[in-house]
Each structure stands twice: as C-alpha cells, then as structure tokens.
Design goal:
Growth Hormone, Chain: A; mainly alpha
C-alpha cells in the first residue's frame, strides 16, 4: 500500500476546532455535536493515516457497482413499467374496460402525479429518518400490489384512486435513489451510474413495445388486464429481493468486509458531503429555500416533464393519430426508447470522463429536443393528421433526448448539494416540479383536438425552450460561485491547500452545507 500521507488523516482532535477563513460561517459551532456528525462518521474516523491504495479503492468500487447498481436498475425498470402500464394498456381496451370517456384518460394520468406530489414531503422526511434500503423496498412491495389489483377497477373513480395511491407509493424511488447515489459513489462516478439506472426507462419502453402479442389473447381476461397482472407480479418478487440485498449504509453492507466498509466511506467523504445524517436541521431547510439552485432546478423540472406525456402515457395514442394500427403503435415505440437508452449512457460516460461537462451535455440534449419539437409543430399534418407521419415520428423519437437533461439535473442534487436535510429537501423540490409538469402535460392533450393535438405540441416546444434557458442560468450561477471562491483562496490560487482540502472534507462529514463549506466547488 502507498505510504504517503492522506489528505484526510483522522486525528483525535481534528473536529474540535475550525479556525481557517473557510469556516467563518460556522463560528460558534466549532465543536461538533453528535447531531452534526454523519451516520458513517465512526467508520470515517477509523481510516488509517495512509493514502488509499488505488487498486483497493477500485476493487471496492467494483463490488459496489456489482451489488448496488443492479438493484437500482431493476427497481427503476419496474417502477417505470408499473407507472407506464396504463400507456401500454390504452390501446388494448383499458379505456373501454374502465369506462373512460372524454378527458378521463388524461386525468387518470395526472392523478398519479397528484399522489406523487402529496407524498414528496413525507417521503423525503422518512428517507432521512428511516433505513433507506428498507423504505424503498417496502414501497416497491406496495406499488406491486397496487398494479396487480388495477384490473379490478371498472370505472374512472376506481382507476383514479388506484393511480393516486400508486403515485404515493412510487414517490420514494427517485429522491431515494439520488440519496443512494451520493452515499455510494464519488462525484465523478455519479453521472455514469445515474444514467445507467435511468436508462432503464428506455429498456422499459422497449419491453412495453414488445407487448403486441398480448393483443392476440382471445380467452380468459381482457388483454389489457394481463399487462397489469404480469408486471405487478414481477414487481412483488423483485421488491422482496431488494429488501433482502439492499444495504441501508456502507456500514451495514454484507458484501463488504470491515476494511472495505472504511474504504467505501473514505471514497465518498472526498465529495465533501458526508454519507447520511438522520437529524432534520431547520437551518438547512431555510437555506434550501434561499438557494437559487433550488428554484432553478424547480422550474427546469416542470419544463422537462410537461413534454413527458408525449413520450410515455400518450405515446400509443399519438402514434394512432399518425395513422398506425394497434400493433404498429407498440413496435414503433421501440426506436424512441433505443434513442433514450443510448443517449443516456453516452451522456453519462461523457460527464464522468470529462470534467465539468454536465451542463454542456444537458444543453446539447435540450437543443436537439427544441429542434424536434419545432418539427412536430411546424410539419403539415393534413386533414386527417396522417400527413408527414414519418417525419413527425422521427421528431418524436428524437424528443427522447430530453431524458439526458433531466437525469443529469439529478446529479446536480447528488453532487452539488451538501447537508443531508438540504439535499433531501432540494430533491423534494425538484420532484415537486416533476409532478407539476407531469400533471400539466396530459392536460395539454385535449380530447376535442384529436387527432392534431396542436396545444400539446406547442406546449412541448415552449417547455423545451424554458428548460434550455434554465440550464444556462444554472451553469452561470455555479460557475460564478466557483470563481468567487477561487479568488478567496488567494494563497494557493484556484487550488485548495492540503489543509484546506482536509478541512472541507471534515466539514462535509459534519453535515455542513455546500454554501457554508467554502472548500466546496460545484461540478459543472
């Protein structure tokens, strides 16, 4: 093992006094209480005084990737499938079987996000207070059961209640995974891991597109019912596995030995964010509300999700208006999901391998969506809505690049927000915006405008433009803060000294926010 001194030596008095200029905002809190310390602080303090062997750290990373990442991928795949089954079932008789009329189908989609919205705040609080792995796994069991009982819904009221409860139970997944990401991976590793599990949306869409064979079932239950029964049963089995194998913290990971647990904590300590702190801190709540990033991400999230209906719950119906038959509407969703899958993995790879490229990649993805949405608005559709259908279909496929911008915005929370209370609240705000956008989106598909849906396509174009502007504003804000902090670190120019770096990491393990920790730098 390399015997060089570590930048994070654990000396007994390292947390007692903080006296450098970096900590002026922390005056009066120089002595860290147990409430301030990270839940993994004891492991962090047990690290030795030598630099980690890169090979040892890489072995731990491989073990984390092989154990944690598949659990995230499978769960994300199933939560998308369970949420999107209503889209797949819409052309197999769901609307007739559940007696949906007029805007009933649109409202059944929006109601899911009302449940998701209302559950955000309690979900965020419980994610901080409860064991993360067990809470997410239990939620998966609930939404699996709700999916299985959906065929029992014979009218709009029953379906609305079912979708509302489904939204409540799935509200924990996205914010929970953002927290899990920051608990296990370093900042430079997070984009690739996040886009890997997020790309399961594309795989889920491909799976849904292959459901055409169900339309040939002519005996027993109605074809649309089988979709819910199949996916719900798979979710129940997977949720049981998740509960068994998903650890709540590195310190409870059965796939790591004692030394590897210390290495896992030391790796993420370098993020200057800590691992987890289960104490709710009011000052971090107020700081979250005052932080410009919170509101930029909120607006960005709304704008990113308004177009989502065209790429998820309304895709089958939109393709029907282009003049394709029932089976074609299923198969023709596959290319768009392939675009989503490939673009997510590529964007994650670029963001992980090239420093400070996240906002640039987000901007490129958004600009592609603006061009595609402009084609959907501008191309003539003819008197029956089927003219230029292939050109509009390709434009719809290319709108799948929108996932790049939203997924990387989640890494802004995981990488660029410190203080556990603040991180989970910022994530909650982002997902409140996510819900609002997904509530608005289906309502832009006005039944009386079929098959043209002019309002929906205009809303999609405007949303992509707003989202693009917000990415630019976010980049400029974080860049300006970094430059200001670099100027303040005058002794060593733009680079922190070893002592300042050590102090910044220590403050991260004491649950200090990124605004208070002057050694923190935003990843752009």
């Amino acid at each position: 093992m390399n015997e060089k001194k570590s930048a994070i030596e654990a000396t007994p008095d390292s947390v007692v006094s903080v006296s450098s200029p970096l900590s002026t905002r922390l005056e009066g809190r120089s002595s860290a209480s147990s409430r301030d310390l990270d839940d993994a602080y004891e492991l962090y303090r047990r690290q030795d005084a030598t630099t980690l062997d890169p090979e040892e750290a890489h072995q731990v990373l491989r073990r984390i990737d092989s154990h944690i990442l598949p659990l995230l991928m499978g769960t994300y795949l199933l939560q998308y499938l369970d949420k999107a089954t209503v889209n797949f079932a819409s052309v197999f008789g769901l609307r007739e079987g559940a007696n949906l009329h007029g805007q009933d189908y649109s409202w059944s989609l929006s109601i899911f996000y009302f449940g998701y919205l209302i559950a955000q705040w309690p979900a965020g609080y419980l994610l901080q207070r409860l064991p993360v792995g067990k809470f997410i796994g239990s939620s998966a069991l609930v939404w699996g059961m709700l999916t299985i009982v959906t065929p029992a819904c014979k009218n709009f009221a029953g379906l609305a209640v079912n979708r509302f409860l489904l939204g409540c139970s799935e509200a924990v997944v996205n914010p929970g995974f953002v927290l899990v990401l920051s608990m296990w991976w370093r900042q430079d590793e997070q984009p690739m891991r996040l886009t890997t599990y997020y790309s399961m949306n594309g795989i889920a869409g491909i799976c849904g597109g292959l459901l055409g064979y169900i339309g040939h079932i002519t005996s027993g239950l109605a074809p649309w019912m089988y979709i819910f029964l199949i996916f719900g049963s798979i979710t129940l089995a997977w949720a049981t596995m998740f509960l068994i194998f998903m650890p709540d913290l590195p310190s409870t990971a059965r796939f790591l030995n004692d030394r590897q647990k210390i290495v896992a904590v030391e790796r993420v300590a370098m993020n200057k964010q800590g691992v987890k702190n289960h104490h709710f801190k009011t000052y971090q709540m107020w700081q979250c509300l005052r932080d410009p990033k919170t509101w930029i991400l909120f607006v960005m999230s709304i704008a990113s999700q308004i177009p989502n209906a065209a790429q998820s719950s309304f895709t089958s119906i939109v393709l029907e208006t282009f003049g394709f038959d029932v089976l074609e509407t299923q198969y023709l969703q596959i290319p768009g999901n392939v675009v989503q899958f490939c673009s997510l993995l590529l964007s994650g790879w670029i963001s992980s391998h090239f420093p400070n490229m996240r906002c640039t990649v987000m901007l490129i993805g958004n600009l592609l969506c603006v061009g595609s949405a402009a084609a959907l608005v501008g191309l003539p559709v003819g008197s029956d809505g089927t003219e230029n259908r292939w050109g509009r279909l390709v434009a719809l496929w290319l709108c799948s690049f929108s996932s790049v911008g939203f997924s990387l915005s989640l890494t802004v929370v995981s990488s660029n927000v410190a203080g556990y209370t603040k991180k989970q609240l910022t994530g909650a705000f982002l997902f409140v915006g996510y819900c609002i956008g997904n509530i608005i989106g289906p309502q832009t598909f006005i039944d009386s405008e079929a098959p043209f849906y002019t309002s929906a396509y205009i809303a999609i174009l405007i949303s992509y433009c707003v989202k693009t502007i917000m990415v630019i504003v976010l980049y400029l804000y974080m860049w300006a803060v970094n430059k200001k902090r670099d100027r303040e670190a005058t002794t060593y120019g733009s680079r922190l000294s070893a002592e300042q770096e050590k102090e910044a990491i220590e403050q991260g393990m004491q649950d200090v926010t990124e605004l208070d920790n002057k050694g923190f730098r935003y990843v752009l």
